[in-house]
Design brief:
Distance between the termini: 20 Å
Number of helices: 4
Order of helices and strands: HHEEHEEEEH
CATH topology: Nuclear Transport Factor 2, Chain: A
Number of strands: 6
Helix content: 25-40%
Mean pLDDT: 93
CATH architecture: Roll
Largest sheet: 6 strands, mixed
Low-confidence stretches: none
Length: about 140
């Protein structure tokens, strides 16, 4: 990915995160391809693969119903071939329980030639994400 493309990607993701944190999931996920595949963290109770932009919007709308969940990108790493590895920090409070949760996780975002996100894979550990992106330290 060129520096210009990476810069545009980072700006778009930061705008999408702002929309996500405000609960505007249509705007947050506007940059996803209609047939996107989103692999959730394996440790989540609803682990698996979401298929399609509408499924992603519906899933995160449900998360928002259960918890005030916010995310912030800590780091963006160019992973080549229209891929970016993002270190994310999430924090939230359960609406019914009041339990506070924070967690760091890692995602590999893959785009098509038009810049739409076609695949997102989530990882618990930085090492696993780096290895999957072919960037092992």
């Amino acid at each position: 990915m060129s520096w210009e493309d990476l810069d545009a990607f980072v700006k778009a993701r930061r705008g999408a995160q702002k929309a996500f944190n405000e609960g505007d999931f249509e705007m947050a996920f506007a940059g996803l391809a209609p047939d996107v595949e989103w692999q959730l963290l394996p440790s989540l109770p609803e682990s698996g693969v979401l298929r399609g932009r509408d499924a992603v919007v519906d899933y995160f709308s449900g998360v928002r119903d259960a918890a005030e969940w916010r995310i912030a990108a800590v780091e963006f790493i160019d992973a080549g071939e229209r891929r970016v590895l993002i270190h994310q920090h999430g924090s939230g409070t359960g609406r019914a329980t009041g339990i506070v949760l924070t967690r760091d996780f890692f995602q590999i975002w893959e785009t098509d030639s038009d810049g739409l996100v076609v695949r997102v894979r989530e990882y618990e550990r930085r090492e696993d994400a780096l290895e999957a992106a072919g960037l092992s330290e």
